[in-house]
Amino acid sequence: MLTSAPEEDGGMSDRRHVEEIERVLDGTQTGRDGFVSASWRRCVELYGMDPTRRDPAHIVTQTELRDHRKQAEWLIGAARSSLQSLFRQVAGQNYALLLTNATGVCVDFFGDDLFLDELKAAGLYLGSNWSEDLAGTSGVGACLVTQEPVTVHQDDHFGNAHVALSCTSAPIFDSLGGLAAVLDISLLRSPSPKRSQNLAMSLVTNAARRVEMANLMAESRRDWVLRLSDSPEFLDVDPEAAVRLDDSGRVLGYTRGARRLFSDGGAVIGRRIDEVLGLTIDDLPDLMRDRPTEERIVQMRDGGALFGHAIAPQAPRTALRVDRRAGPLAGLSGGDPAMTRLLTQAAKLARSAVPLLIAGESGTGKTKLAHAIHMTGSTSGFLAMDCAGLTCDALRAACADLPGSATLLLRRIEDLPPATAAVLVGVLDAGAGLRVISTTCAAPGALDLPRPLFHRLAGAVLDLPPLRQRQDIGWLVDRILRRRSPQEMRLSPSARATLLGRHWPGNLRELEQVLDVAIALCEGRVIDLPDLPAPVDRSTDLPPPESLEQIMEACGWNMARAARRLGVNRSTVLRRLRQAGLQPPG
Ligand SMILES: Nc1ncnc2c1ncn2[C@@H]1O[C@H](COP(=O)(O)OP(=O)(O)OP(=O)(O)O)[C@@H](O)[C@H]1O
């Protein structure tokens, strides 16, 4: 039995409210929404609350508020612009907006300064705690329990303290499907019909959906995102649902709108997209923005269809970039840290006359780098010679025609016949304006050259990394594809993953050839697995003796890619990392 309503200030309506709660507890249907009756029941039977008490709002301490806000930083960031635009839409209508965390504490707030004192007194402010067991039936509290959008209007509230308010709240889910927050729009005073809040309901649910979308997009820069909409007009600007996928098509996250599209109610994270929706990862390139929206149709498993918009992973952002003023040198790398360091040095050395020795495995781009250095430097003539079988006469004849200022490129210096070595020393000493660049596949220290010659060639050594150690393979693939295909072509995600996972004993030359073959074999515009030639040089296609850390770095610490490159499964990679005490940087 509840205590009776206070006579002094409760008045008739307060008493009626308390009486209705009593009747609901007795099992009478009073016309209240079912979730409201259920909440009233919990308030009395579970939390032992008394509706006649006018408790002040529950406000956490400043220190607690700071902690709550710190923990919700990501959420506040993702929600800010949606809240701002929602607040603009309701400006001048006395609404207050509250963003609470999953425990019901308000961590962000927008309200009209004119009513700030009233809003604070009513608990519509930063730090107020609206969890049901403290504040009774409220929009936020009921939303946290039901995980559905709700309007708790006037005397839907449990306690007499809040019956003037009208609160409409929508849940916000994180990308793993957990309830993360509640977005609430509240009025101090409102018209009595509950339906007056229908517009508020639609505003708050749309804003919550946008917050989930913003959060998912912020998490997904390195992954595929598939966005879905019922209508082609909203697909690119305000889609209803989104799924985040890794490059093998496994679900990494989703927005609440996508949950209802999945074919069964079971756990979805980690499952392949073709198991939960009616498409595979390789269908995504066909759903990118360059296709007309009406053609981007995704068949759902229930027989329905939606419009789809696939967003490809963005290239990793790297702090290191070669200065654009380095000209042709800057175009040789897509942000691989070792290449960036090397090219930055090369750009400085290019302006000097220091003889350069470029070392690296076959096909790593030594000749291309030498050309770029020449183009960046100040010499005018350019002569490239292969050292294998180079005779003294041929060397003397070729150098005799060189202009006063020239670059002499000697390819594969390790193959220089010993007899020519002595002549080369003479040529270099005689040519005052001659800048020499040589290349070698051997380790510079192991070069079997006469010392006088070695010191005239190796003023500085530039060591090119093998392709398998580069972190910009994806960038190189796109660049080569753009340059060598007659029309715009793309790779299916599985074809891309395969290329990123190969060992590339033939380095960039091999990559170019593989892409040439794929371009020739591919019938449409999307290169898929069957278009890729198998690795030719399997004998050397064994994992090189590199450290696990080097491989992880080359794979951007992507477990799936490292597993493919090592030819083991992901759990083995994880185990080996743990054994080696390795962790991803930062
Ligand atoms: N940064 C790059 N981007 C795209 N393609 C490149 C790049 N560097 C080199 N290549 C291409 O890779 C192929 C091999 O390059 P290059 O001839 O410079 O290698 P190399 O190391 O001199 O080879 P080798 O040791 O066999 O003489 C060439 O076709 C070249 O165009």
TrEMBL record:
Keyword ATP-binding: yes
GO BP terms in the entry: phosphorelay signal transduction system; regulation of DNA-templated transcription
InterPro entries hit by this protein: AAA_lid_NorR, GAF, GAF-like_dom_sf, Homeodomain-like_sf, HTH_Fis, P-loop_NTPase, Sigma_54_int, Sigma_54_int_dom_ATP-bd_1
Domain of life (superkingdom): Bacteria
GO molecular function: ATP binding; sequence-specific DNA binding
Domain Sigma-54 factor interaction: 332-520
Keyword annotations of the record: ATP-binding, DNA-binding, Nucleotide-binding, Transcription, Transcription regulation, Two-component regulatory system
Classification via Gene3D superfamilies: 1.10.8.60, 3.30.450.40, Homeodomain-like, P-loop containing nucleotide triphosphate hydrolases
PANTHER family with a match to the protein in the record: TRANSCRIPTIONAL REGULATORY PROTEIN (PTHR32071)
Protein name, entry field: GAF domain-containing protein
Organism: Paracoccus shanxieyensis
